[in-house]
């Protein structure tokens, strides 16, 4: 009998997000993983640790996964999902991380009775620091919901919503959120260079400042606003910078617009 922490999984699509979660699951210990991935380069990092096939038809006949993780691009769903219908008939749990794709849209491709959890993770899952927000479709059992929770908890923090429509703003905020934070590191580095700092030093400073601030935020019970105030000496240097960043048309408004744009795109991807 296996002592792996997690049960057998079938991963459909091992790109940036599927690969990030797989890294976390393997670190935790999985009974067996079969990966369906047509692009060999995507699975190179997992050689010897998982079984890889290039199409779902080639999944070994006797393999009976507890969950099938759908991690292709939304635009690749029509090609990838119909071949998974045989697992739906067997009552398996599907966990889709695809942006936009609704439970109704997916059951349409998998067969009407497919049990689908929509999950919106993010790439810090690769270092088990992810955040995933989930919605359980009709027919998902309590045991299957607990399995989805366990799998996603293995790569970070998990939350559930009862309203599927909330997954669209979740996609915009926490799904894409790491990109906005990485952009912050990029522009901070550029600004440092503009003030005459050498490139290597600018890069180190920007990366460590963003990563260290994230670690402080994670470790602290204080609000982000209070942590910001703690840096900001009255009439000091940070105050001058924040007067620029927090101006009415600056970051607060830009972030509102950015999140609204991403939420709208998530709704479009349903189609
Ligand atoms: N990248 C991210 O930060 C996040 C991505 N997502 C979602 O995860 C999904 C994947 O995104 P990424 O990993 O960024 O894209 P990606 O392009 O890196 O990965 C998709 C993978 O699916 C493979 N694939 C294509 N057709 C396939 C098929 N028929 N069967 C099996 N595999 C197939 C591709 O070769 C590729 O490796 C998307 O639906 C996205 O909305 C969700 C949250 C965050
Ligand atoms: O950009 C995207 O569409 C996906 C969903 C959230 C992060 N990446």
From TrEMBL:
Localization per Swiss-Prot or TrEMBL: Cytoplasm
Pathway stated in the Swiss-Prot or TrEMBL entry: Amino-acid biosynthesis; L-proline biosynthesis; L-proline from L-glutamate 5-semialdehyde: step 1/1
Pfam families: F420_oxidored, P5CR_dimer
Enzyme nomenclature, EC number: 1.5.1.2
Keywords per UniProt: Amino-acid biosynthesis, Cytoplasm, NADP, Oxidoreductase, Proline biosynthesis
Main location: cytoplasm
Enzyme class of the recorded protein, top EC level: oxidoreductase
Catalytic reaction equation(s): L-proline + NADP(+) = (S)-1-pyrroline-5-carboxylate + NADPH + 2 H(+); L-proline + NAD(+) = (S)-1-pyrroline-5-carboxylate + NADH + 2 H(+)
Keyword field contains Cytoplasm: yes
Domain Pyrroline-5-carboxylate reductase catalytic N-terminal residue range list: 11-100
GO molecular function (one): pyrroline-5-carboxylate reductase activity
Location of the Pyrroline-5-carboxylate reductase dimerisation domain: 164-269
The family this protein is said to belong to: Belongs to the pyrroline-5-carboxylate reductase family.
Annotated function: Catalyzes the reduction of 1-pyrroline-5-carboxylate (PCA) to L-proline.
Protein name: Pyrroline-5-carboxylate reductase
């Amino acid at each position: 009998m296996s002592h792996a922490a997690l049960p057998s999984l079938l991963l459909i699509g091992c790109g940036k997000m599927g690969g990030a979660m797989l890294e976390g699951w393997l670190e935790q210990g999985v009974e067996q993983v079969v990966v369906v991935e047509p692009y060999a380069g995507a699975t190179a990092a997992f050689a010897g640790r998982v079984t890889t096939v290039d199409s779902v038809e080639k999944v070994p006949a006797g393999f009976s996964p507890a969950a099938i993780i759908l991690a292709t691009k939304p635009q690749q769903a029509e090609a990838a999902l119909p071949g998974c219908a045989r697992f739906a008939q067997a009552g398996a749990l599907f966990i889709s991380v695809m942006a936009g794709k609704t439970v109704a849209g997916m059951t349409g491709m998998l067969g009407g009775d497919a049990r689908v959890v929509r999950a919106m993770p993010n790439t810090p899952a690769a270092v088990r620091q992810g955040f995933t927000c989930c919605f359980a479709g009709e027919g998902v059992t309590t045991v299957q919901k607990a399995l989805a929770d366990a799998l996603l908890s293995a790569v970070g923090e998990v939350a559930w919503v009862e309203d599927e429509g909330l997954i669209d703003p979740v996609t915009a905020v926490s799904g894409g959120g790491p990109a906005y934070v990485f952009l912050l590191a990029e522009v901070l580095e550029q600004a440092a260079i503009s003030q005459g700092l050498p490139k290597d030093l600018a890069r180190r400073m920007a990366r460590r400042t963003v990563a260290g601030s994230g670690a402080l935020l994670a470790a602290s019970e204080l609000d982000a606003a209070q942590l910001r105030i703690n840096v900001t000496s009255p009439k000091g240097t940070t105050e001058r910078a924040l007067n620029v960043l927090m101006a009415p048309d600056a970051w607060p408004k830009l972030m509102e617009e950015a999140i609204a744009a991403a939420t709208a795109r998530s709704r479009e991807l349903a189609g």
